[in-house]
Structure formats: structure tokens, C-alpha cells
Specification:
Elements (H helix, E strand, L loop, with lengths): L4 E5 L2 E4 L4 E9 L7 H10 L3 H17 L10 H7 L7 E2 L2 E6 L3 E7 L3 E12 L2 E12 L2 H30 L13 E7 L2
Antiparallel strand pairs: 1-2, 3-8, 3-9, 4-5, 5-6, 6-7, 7-8
């Protein structure tokens, strides 16, 4: 089962046949001026320290298992500031798969699974919704087992990271002042 790109709307180039999918959305007001690249930068810089530690552990284990490991730049902050987030750019374990004015799709293809994370600005009425969607496609039993272990952490981290991304990208402390449960899951799909 592979991932396929399809233009499903004027603003979205996306993958279809995913065995796992979830979407988290968070409404914001008055942040139409914040560029999508600011949210992408925040995706990498706004993670809590315990998440960064988990990713470090993941990278150590990945090297023993023959999986792709993240290439962390020495000066991460400068690297993120200078990165244009253009198609093909690599940021750690993630590659920019697609980019438009209102969305960035990050992801990676590996021997055990492929994944995509779409960060998207959606205009709604007088406001804006920031959406983060994850899709995963498995290539083999190891991919399924790997994601079975990762999935609880993903579900814990994703809505919290979305809130922190919005706060960091907008520079507005009030934007994400609601509880961390303010990011609502609107869709979870498992097709195995």
C-alpha cells in the first residue's frame, strides 16, 4: 500500500491511501498575516523538552534497528531561521514534500512506513483554523509494530504541539491561552 498525491482542493496536495490518519484543528483569530513557514518553523522549535528527549531516544534506537535517524544541526535555531522550507529541504528526520501559501506537507519515506504531516491554514468566516493532519502508510509488519509503539505518544504530543506551534508562530501569548485540550481531534482513521 503506497501513498499517492492528489489535488483534492485548490490548496491541498495530499496523500490518499493511509492506514492511519488523524487531524487536529485549533481556531485562531486575527492571524491571517502569519505565514505558513512560521508555523512550520514552530513545529520544530516549539516542542517541549520531554518530546525532544523522546526523539533523541528514538534516534538512538533507530540507528540500532537500521531506520533513518534525524540529522540534528549543531545550531538548530539558526538553521530553522535560515531554512526556506522549500520542497525537498530536509529538517532533521522530515523532508518538505509540498509547500503552498497556506500549507506545508512534511514527511519521509522509509523501508517500514511512509508518513506525512500537513500543517495548513484554513480561512473560516472571520477567523482562521490551523490544522495539523498526520497520515501513515505501512510497508510491512515491522512498520505496523513500530507505529503501534509510537501511536500513543503521537496522540499525546500532536494536539499539544499544535497549540504551542500557534503560540510560537503568532508571538501572541493569548492565542493559545486556552487549555491544551483546546485543540480538537476531528478525525481518526485506522484501516488495518
Amino acid at each position: 500500500m503506497g501513498l499517492e498525491a492528489r489535488r483534492s482542493s485548490p490548496q491541498t496536495v495530499w496523500v490518499l491511501r493511509a492506514a492511519y490518519k488523524d487531524t487536529f484543528r485549533y481556531p485562531v483569530k486575527g492571524h491571517q498575516h502569519v505565514p505558513i513557514v512560521a508555523y512550520a518553523r514552530a513545529f520544530f522549535s516549539a516542542a517541549p523538552s520531554w518530546v525532544v528527549a523522546l526523539l533523541g531516544l528514538r534516534n538512538k534506537l533507530a540507528s540500532y534497528l537500521g531506520l533513518k535517524a534525524s540529522k540534528v544541526p549543531t545550531d538548530r535555531a539558526t538553521f530553522l531561521q535560515q531554512c526556506a522550507f522549500e520542497k525537498g529541504d530536509e529538517i532533521g528526520l522530515f523532508r518538505v514534500m509540498e509547500k503552498s501559501m497556506d500549507q506545508i506537507i512534511l514527511g519521509q519515506d522509509d523501508q517500514h512506513l511512509d508518513f506525512r504531516i500537513c500543517i495548513q491554514k484554513i480561512k473560516q468566516n472571520e477567523g482562521l483554523v490551523i490544522e495539523m493532519e498526520t497520515r501513515v502508510s505501512f510497508h510491512n509488519a515491522f512498520g505496523r509494530l513500530y507505529f503501534l509503539i509510537v501511536k500513543p505518544f503521537h496522540r499525546l504530543i500532536a494536539p499539544r504541539l499544535l497549540k504551542r506551534m500557534i503560540k510560537a508562530a503568532s508571538g501572541d501569548e493569548k492565542t493559545a491561552s486556552r487549555s491544551e485540550h483546546g485543540a480538537a481531534s476531528i478525525d481518526r482513521t485506522k484501516k488495518d
